[in-house]
Write a structure and sequence with these properties.
mainly alpha
């Protein structure tokens, strides 16, 4: 999914060292470790995810196309739904009289995304 989203956003034109999936893993896991990570730090983190590019090469990719790519991936993740047609679900669910699903997750985004993702308006 990430590779396709990267192509649709115009981030990846032809497959080389940088793919949508290894760029996504690099950015996601590096930012989870440290919110303010340098481009050099991102490039070093990328090696663990198969993203073998220098900091300068990565810096050139941090563009509007990358922002569009990340938004598309976030939108897709927020729209994931449990596939009710899965063959294992009826057997699994038949064990329970009721199933209540509650989502209490909190996603904190940078202030720059406030216009696109308004959320609840409650601070952390």
């Amino acid at each position: 999914m990430a590779d396709k989203a990267a192509q649709e956003a115009g981030l990846i034109v032809r497959q080389r060292q940088v793919t949508g999936s290894n760029l996504l893993k690099t950015l996601l896991f590096a930012w989870m470790q440290k919110e303010e990570v340098s481009v050099s730090g991102l490039a070093r983190a990328g090696f663990g995810h198969g993203l073998k590019t220098a900091a300068q090469g990565l810096d050139k990719r941090l563009t509007q196309a990358t922002a569009d790519f990340l938004k598309a991936v976030l939108d897709a993740a927020l729209n994931l739904r449990l596939c009710v047609g899965s063959p294992c679900l009826p057997e699994l669910f038949s064990r329970f009289a009721a199933i209540d699903v509650t989502d209490c997750s909190t996603v904190t985004l940078p202030e720059a995304l406030a216009a696109q993702y308004q959320g609840t308006g409650r601070a952390g």
